[in-house]
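Hi support team,

I submitted a single chain yesterday and got back a structure, but I'm not sure I'm reading the token output correctly. Could someone confirm the output below corresponds to the sequence I sent? I've pasted both exactly as they appear in my results page.

Thanks,
R.
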Amino acid sequence: SMIAISTRLPRYIPSFQFWTDEERCAMNVEKAIECGARMSSRRSRPFNEADRAVLQYAAREAARLGA
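Hi R., thanks for writing in. Yes, this is the structure output for that exact sequence:
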């Protein structure tokens, strides 16, 4: 999740969410993958198909569970 709000955070924040003061919506999975790939490159670590598959699986499960 990406949280950028100026108020007090709730006790529970669902997975794969994008929250700002103006809106709260589900995070685009492809955007999450792009962010993960950028983060990995900053750490000199390759981002591979297994990493992509894990994020896609986690996003599907979060959606399925209503997280």
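A quick pointer for reading it: The chain is about 45% helix and 15% strand. Let us know if anything else looks off.

Best,
Support desk
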